[in-house]
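Worked Example 4.2. Consider the chain below.
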Amino acid sequence: MDKLKFSVAMSVYKNDNPEYVQTALDSIIKQTCVPDEIVLVADGPIPDALREVIEHTRKRFPQLRPLYQEKNAGLGEALRIAVENARYDYIARMDSDDISLPERFEKQMKCFREDPSLSIVGGMITEFVDTPDNITGRRLLPLTDAKIKKFMRSRCGVNHVTVIFKKSELLRVGNYQPFYHQEDYYLWARMIKGGCVFRNIPDVVVNVRAGRDQYARRGGIKYMKSQIKMFHFMYKEGVITLPRLLYNYAVRSAVQFLMPNVLRTWIYQHFLRKK
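Applying the procedure from the previous section yields the following structure tokens:
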């Protein structure tokens, strides 16, 4: 069977670490199934060191297509631009500081070859601090379409940094759109509403660079308001019921706003992540 051509969508901005970006790019171009292009959106002005990493990599991998933007518009807008400019219908997401395992794309693209009805395929992640071998946790999720959509009623059922999706399906539901810290969840909710078919593979496919304060950042009134807005949208569109809406409001208010950072971090590490 002929190889399915696919793009990779990435975004960088001024505060990204050039060394981490280089490691992320290297993990893409050294895959057992190499992408046909990398669409890299520079979200606003970037320092020379970061631009040098991009241009140096483009010399080694001419399929890298940087799109330099004049103004910073945020992740949702940057990914919208990447998707619209991708040349192929299959698009893999990649963050600028994570590491894709060597067989990631080979395993995920095999799913699309075997089941053309799929709209999106994700996988599992490990999380590390400081060095890639210092694994601090892993996020394991449901595998089947029905179980993923059930999980989505309260939490993201796919790891955003791992997904490969069909461009045509994303455009059909409105593509990425700005939504404070919820760009991915907002997209998944619209894909569920649109009848898209989800799958996760059981393999770990991305090693995610986790900051020591990452769980503390998932708090505060602005974050909580964004999640409340997200769940209200899901209820309005019929993705969740009223009892589930009220349950989500209660739980998220407790975890994101009322709970101290130390306790929130402990809950994420001991209940929402696997060792």
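The chain has two domains: 6-122+143-201, 221-271. DSSP finds ten helices and nine strands in the chain. Compare this with Example 4.1 before moving on.
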